[in-house]
Amino acid sequence: MSTAKENLECYRTFLKTIPLKSYREELQKVKWVEQDLPPEIQPLESIYRNYWDTQNFLCFEEWFENFWNEINTDPIKLPILKEFKKYYFDKNNNGWFKKGFKARMYRQWVSMLTQLDFCYALACQSEKEDENLTLECNAELDRKNIDVKIGDIGFQVAKISQRKEARTGKSKKKGKIEIITIPYPIYNLEEFKRLSESTRARQENRDAYKKVLKAFYKYLEIFDNGFVVFGENYITPIVKNIDKIERIKETVGGISKELSGES
């Protein structure tokens, strides 16, 4: 049986192989299937089954074709897919729809891979700290906006693209579960570097961007292909304080402020 550390290493080896730039060039502007999808043709179960439950790390093309075949052959899902296409598009060009659906699935796929990196990192650090934590990570929780649950604490990874979005760590209650938002920066690092060195910017703004960049590399790691993953400095204090919810809130709130350049 693989250790949590081995699982994380295998997962991140897979993440490093994803040609993010190529997919971005191919699919970024393909946005004609953006409507709310019926749950029957959502990819949640398929993604969790492959990339978490069985650790079957398929490339996007292979995963998408498998999922496309699944919803086009399932006796329950196929009629719902046909009704969805008819209602919104009323077109017989299946290739045109498939391309739009593929682009939609890619954005959801890559976003969920980020969530799962947080889960794998949590499991690995838990093993390292001998915490023996039980992580729950599945489609049912995802539908409740919980990416991973440990006891009565839920975590939701939220992408941020601007400094101001990172300023406060957020949490909310859902029944007995306290959900903590985990900011995941998708900053334009080159632009932030330019702003940190710009002689046209005020010194305080230059300093803020320098702090943002320092915090980014302190808490996260970026692979050669551009995929950003969670670093030990982000994960360790969460695991060490897992039985102290207020300490976790303080930790994540502090990281949020650092990622905004405020501290």
How would you describe the overall organization of this protein?
- With 263 residues, this protein is of the alpha+beta class.
- The chain contains 11 helices and 6 strands.
- The chain has a 4-stranded mixed beta sheet. A two-stranded antiparallel sheet has the order 5-6.
- A hairpin with a 2-residue loop joins strand 3 (171-174) and strand 4 (177-185).
- The radius of gyration is 20 Å and the shape is globular.
- It starts with a helix and ends with a helix.
Describe this structure in a few short sentences.
The chain is of the alpha+beta class and 263 residues long. The chain is 56% helix and 11% strand.
Q: Topology of this structure?
A:
Layout: H1 4-15, H2 20-27, H3 44-53, H4 60-73, H5 77-88, H6 94-128, H7 139-142, E1 148-150, E2 153-160, E3 171-174, E4 177-185, H8 189-197, H9 203-219, E5 220-222, E6 228-230, H10 232-240, H11 245-260
Parallel strand pairs: 2-4
Antiparallel strand pairs: 1-2, 3-4, 5-6
